[in-house]
Amino acid sequence: MKPKEQAGGQQRNYRVALLGTKFMGKAHSQAYRNVNMYFADAPRVEQVVLCGRNPEETEQARDAYGWQEASTDWREVVTRDDIDIVDVVTPGHMHCEMVLAAAAAGKDIVCEKPLANTLDEAERMVAAVEAAGVRHLIMHNYRRVPAVALAKRMLEDGRIGDVYHFRARYLQDWALSPELELVWRFDAKQAGSGALGDLGAHVIDLGRYLCGEISELAATCETFIKRRPASAGSSEMGDVTVDDATALCVRFENGAIGTIEASRFAPGRKNHNTFEINGSKGSLTFDLENLNNLRYYSVDDAGDAQGFREIIACSLGKHPYADNWWFDGHILGYEHTFTHTVYDWLQALTSGAAVHPSFYDGLKNQQVLDAASRAAESRRWESVA
Ligand code: SOE
Question: Ligand 1 center to residue 202 CA distance, Å?
């Protein structure tokens, strides 16, 4: 659906409804709020309505995040004529129903990762947006860390040569305490999976984005704390029904091989999304906990100066998105990646250019997640297709 036209056919604005108010609601809200301040050529964004479950909490979030209206009725909101974009940031078990409703209403759609809780849901979501002819984006924001976008550019320029390895880990440690209650992320009905879908989906997307499609994999997973308090401080216990950690061995269609790990049980690793790519002409390493930097090794560096270079990827005129922020070395953060993604999304909506990552990427990601679950069960190599 095209936004309201301004006299003379100019693009007027994109009116957004955001479904979800928690962590991702805040991250996406700041992107809509900031994109026009930092990206002068971005189409105008109007934060029209924020949807949540609890009226008081949703009203507080509306006020804090800068939305015009608050609602607890997402079904009504997605049908409104004054909404162009629906952005779904709720827990995974709500993604499918919300996306199907927004697609039926002809809205362009953003959805948080992973796309769905099951492969079947992901397939239905892709079919729905295709039938509706709407545009769609999955918020794999780490593609638009400037250092990651630089890695992509260097790979495309051939500076790393033929890729041999993609070695990635996404490690956190917030689930270590057995006292932590059964939040929704420990419930397969709400989250689909645990570390695999929450963290693994990110590194799978980076692997696909930087190295190509994954053809087959072996997997193992573990739930280290199998029962947790049903609610904070409760003596009643309940079952954890998702993985606390998953490890994959993967083969790419282009012949590269790799390992992918996702864990919430790595003490000291707070948001350690890291990869290393080794190729015929060099290597790249990245660590989200040091997200402005990309480390690069070139086989062409001669003599006693050979070694990994530390690139601070936020220099004007050199690095992706850098010209829209500050001067060289005035580093960026986690939230900027959402603003970059929203900017590129709005530009694509306006120009009609391809969006990445789209729900097609989300479906491919879901196929890898599904293969990983099958492989962990079968203890055999499983093909992804
Ligand atoms: C998990 O703690 C989490 O919030 C993920 O769900 C997000 O996708 C990631 O960006 C940060 O960590």
Answer: 9
Question: Which residues have CB under 6 Å of ligand 1?
Answer: 23, 172, 198, 271
Residue 325 alpha carbon to ligand 1 centre in Å = 24
- Integer Cα distance of 311 and 317 in angstroms: 14
Residue 352 tokens read as 């009609």
Residues 6 or more apart whose CB falls under 8 angstroms from that of 288 comprise: 142, 145, 271, 272, 273, 274, 334
Q: Of 22, 23, 263, 264, which is best to mutate to test ligand 1, by the most ligand atoms within 8 angstroms of its C-beta?
A: 23
Q: Which atom of ligand 1 is nearest to the CA of 113?
A: 8
Ligand 1, atom 9, lies closest to the CA of: 199
Domains annotated on the chain, with CATH:
14-141 (3.40.50.720), 146-290+292-332+359-383 (3.30.360.10)
Q: pLDDT, tens digit, for every residue of 105-124?
A: 999 999 999 999 999 999 99
The alpha carbons of the chain give a radius of gyration, in whole angstroms, of: 21
Query: Could you tell me which of 103, 104, 96, 102 has the C-alpha nearest to residue 121?
Result: 96
pLDDT in tens, 265-300: 999 999 999 999 999 999 999 999 999 999 999 999
Give distance in angstroms: CA of 341 to centre of ligand 1: 16
Distance CA 78, CA 81 (A): 9
Q: Residue 277 is encoded by which pair of tokens?
A: 């790519």
- Nearest-atom index, ligand 1, CA of 172: 2
Looking at the whole model, is its pTM more than 0.90? yes
